[in-house]
């Protein structure tokens, strides 16, 4: 049974994430683009979403530093790189352009697959191609 | 303020999700990383898939509770969505994260890399929307 505990915890966390996205209005690309549209009728919703999310996430992170290990895993699997380099900046810049063009970022786009919205499917399919292109790029 | 209460409440749920995944499974709730990681075999794959399944089931759960589906207004044409998807897929891998990994989780950890990434994608996102607005 212990083998099922970790996937079940992940499923519950995923449900919370999807529920939060739906409740927050962030599944609506027009609303997200409204936040990015600082020259127009600016919609500050995303500030509240990110503020709420970062504060609870920060509490969780602070708590994790007092624990020897996670409840169901051996180690905390955290990024260790601290280098601010070209790939980080270029990657974030390209992502921002795609985000601005569509109003979709990966979380809401994947969650939106269950709404049956065909444009979300188009976006996610293209996103997977972009990820594969990165994995297969010549070095 | 009342108009932004659902946004704040939804954000708190997203933060609770990230905190849960970290404290229980020791994993960062970065959606682009979890999606891309599915291509690599390993013991984490099943849990990551379960998280993404939960993410997809979130909107129907919301619909069952609220009595209506969440509002979705998609203005972009399919070709624009395809280009955007390519940029988001490639860019989030090159930059090691998206709004959730760098935004929700990275900012919470006070990661300098994530702070830079967030500032950059906010800037290019805002610039893109401004240029599209200016285009005839």
How much of the sequence of chain B is in beta strands? under 5%
Q: What is the overall pLDDT average of chain B? A: 96
Radius of gyration of chain B: 17 Å
Give the total of beta strands of chain B: 0
How many alpha or pi helices of chain A?
6
Indicate the low-confidence ranges of chain B by residue numbers. none
User: Could you name the ranges of chain A where pLDDT drops below 50 across 5 or more consecutive residues?
Assistant: none
| Major pleated sheet of chain A | none
Sketch the topology of chain A as an H/E string, one letter per element: HHHHHH
Helix percent band of chain A: 55-70%
Q: From the alpha-carbon coordinates, what is the Rg of chain A to the nearest angstrom?
A: 18 Å
The class by helix and strand makeup of chain B works out as mainly alpha
Oligomer: heterodimer
Roughly how many Å apart are the termini of chain A?
A: 43 Å
Q: In terms of structural class, how would the helical and strand content of chain A be classed?
A: mainly alpha
Please indicate the count of domains of chain B.
Answer: 1
Main β sheet profile of chain B = none
* Residues in helices of chain B, as a percent range: over 70%
Mean pLDDT of chain A: 96
Order of helices and strands of chain B: HHHHHH
Number of domains of chain A: 1
Task: Note down, in words, how this protein is organized.
The complex is a heterodimer of chains A (139) and B (136). Chain A is mostly helical and 139 residues long. Chain A is 67% helix and 0% strand. Chain A has helices at 2-24, 29-36, 45-64, 86-102, 106-111, 118-136. In chain A, helix 2 crosses helix 4. The model of chain A has no long low-confidence stretch (mean pLDDT 96). Chain B has one domain (2-134). The longest helix of chain B has 23 residues, at 112-134. The N and C termini of chain B lie far apart (35 Å). The model of chain B has no long low-confidence stretch (mean pLDDT 96). At the A-B interface, helix 1, helix 2, helix 3, helix 4 and helix 5 of A face helix 1, helix 2, helix 3, helix 4 and helix 5 of B.
């Amino acid at each position: 049974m212990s083998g099922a505990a970790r996937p079940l915890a992940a499923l519950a966390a995923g449900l919370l994430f999807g529920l939060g996205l739906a409740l927050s209005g962030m599944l609506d690309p027009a609303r997200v683009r409204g936040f990015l549209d600082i020259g127009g009728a600016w919609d500050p919703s995303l500030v509240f979403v990110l503020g709420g999310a970062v504060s609870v996430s920060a509490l969780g992170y602070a708590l994790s530093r007092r624990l020897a290990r996670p409840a169901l895993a051996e180690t905390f699997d955290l990024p260790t790189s601290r280098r601010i380099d070209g790939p980080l900046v270029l990657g974030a810049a390209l992502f921002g352009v795609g985000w601005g063009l569509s109003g979709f970022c990966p979380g809401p786009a994947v969650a939106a697959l269950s709404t049956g919205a065909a444009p979300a499917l188009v976006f996610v399919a293209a996103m997977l191609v972009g990820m594969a292109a990165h994995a297969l790029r010549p070095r | 303020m009342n108009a932004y209460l659902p946004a704040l409440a939804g954000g708190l749920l997203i933060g609770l999700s990230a905190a849960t995944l970290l404290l229980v499974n020791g994993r960062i709730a970065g959606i682009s990383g979890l999606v891309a990681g599915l291509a690599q075999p390993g013991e984490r794959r099943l849990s990551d898939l379960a998280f993404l399944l939960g993410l997809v089931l979130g909107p129907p759960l919301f619909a069952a509770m609220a009595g209506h589906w969440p509002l979705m207004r998609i203005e972009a044409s399919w070709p624009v969505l395809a280009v955007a998807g390519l940029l988001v897929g490639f860019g989030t891998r090159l930059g090691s994260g998206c709004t959730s990994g760098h935004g929700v989780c990275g900012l919470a950890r006070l990661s300098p890399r994530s702070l830079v990434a967030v500032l950059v994608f906010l800037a290019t996102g805002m610039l893109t929307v401004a240029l599209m607005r200016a285009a005839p």
